[in-house]
Design brief:
By secondary structure, this protein is mainly β. The chain has one helix and twelve strands. The chain is 12% helix and 52% strand.
Length: 203
Amino acid sequence: MRNSLIKSAILIVIVITTFQACKKEDKTPVNQFSYGNKTSLIGSIWGGYLGESPTHGVFGTTLFITENSLTWHYQGGYPDSLSGSGDLMMLTFITTELMEIPSGKYSYSSNSSAPFVANKFGMESFLIINYISATEEGEEVLFNGGTVDVVKNGEEYELTFNITTNVNTTITGYYKGKITMYDAGKKKSVPAGRYARPFLRQF
């Protein structure tokens, strides 16, 4: 009788432990962003450093966030062009750090002239739905509010999106992983088209 009870107790512990492990796995966020009825799995994110603004000590960095159906091609070690089709989101952050986005909560601002205020995002930020690289066409959606939470640990970033748009919709999303930063001013090859590389300029 005692052995039977012990075996039953061990079995219950195993079942509970397995169930808890499965629950933890289920709660692991997926790298994705959602807009309307569509959820786009994030294939890659890289950052382009824009330079220092006219406001001393305030810098700009743009994140290029692409669905996994889009592929970046590199030339000379820099992202150069896209192939495929899918959703593409660009977020420009105003920070006090050179070539990085420090941890913090970034609120939306449409300001595109000095003085620039740090811990904001929004200038030249937008979503392109169903971007087709072959024709460089897609439906552009502009932003008008929201926040992006950033947690930085070395080269790894954790991003949480909650952005409102000018068509009364909301973009939500999450990303955790490494983001490589590039100095956009040093890149020589410039592909044609507005959406291939729209942020190549100093403030």
